[in-house]
Amino acid sequence: MSIKIAPSLLSADFSRLGEEVRAIDAAGADYIHIDVMDGHFVPNLTIGPVVIKAIRPHTRKIFDVHLMIDPAQPFLKDYADAGADILTVHAEADRHLDRSLQYIRSLGKKAGVSLNPATPVSILDHVLDRVDLILVMSVNPGFGGQVFIDAQLEKIRRIRTLIGNRAIELEVDGGITPQTAAQCVAAGADVLVAGSAVFKGNSYADNIAAIRNAQTSICHETFIIP
Ligand code: DX5
Ligand code: ZN
User: Fold this and answer.
1) How many domains does the chain fold into?
2) Strands (DSSP E) along 71-149, which ranges?
3) Is the beta carbon of 176 within 6 A of some atom in ligand 1?
4) What is the pTM of this model?
5) Residues known to be catalytic
């Protein structure tokens, strides 16, 4: 199975955002993960549509926009127009989740739903036919550089089973390192978001490769260990 890596711009140097986007593109990123925070749903503030529009010309890769905002619905068109390809809303921030997911698709974008660590899998039961991506938060959203919450591995396994044969990507966000990446992939994740583990040291390409290769070697071990 080929895993996608989505570096999170939250850990990039914001004074050189365009350059950082080009660097992770060249380093092998599959998606560009963009964290939008409102200081209300999460205790931090980041960027809005104008910044996304400004960095859009720097890459052709998929913009995976994670909306940690409440409400999200009134702003979805702005993010779509700014250049998002995937728009992910939080189940906890949306009283009308089904409507928002339908609206995202009507804008011609892929619809994602994200679950905070304490949110149960059952919230997905009646929206599975409306989503293209499910994002499991493996930290409490708001900041980069936090420690992976192990209890989310069980949630990833359950969602993988729930997805069945549907064409839905299962993405995990928060505390991803080569070690936790391997555990997430073994549990059924297909897309891994990584901020601090990518934007460090002097080779983003090596950092991305370390996350990809860690999961490959563990998968291999799974086959050879009886
Ligand atoms: C947290 C964000 C994450 C964050 C991940 O609210 O959604 O995307 O940037 O950062 P790391 O990989 O450092 O945990
Ligand atoms: Zn995120």
Assistant:
1) 1
2) 86-90, 110-115, 133-137
3) yes
4) 0.96
5) 35, 173
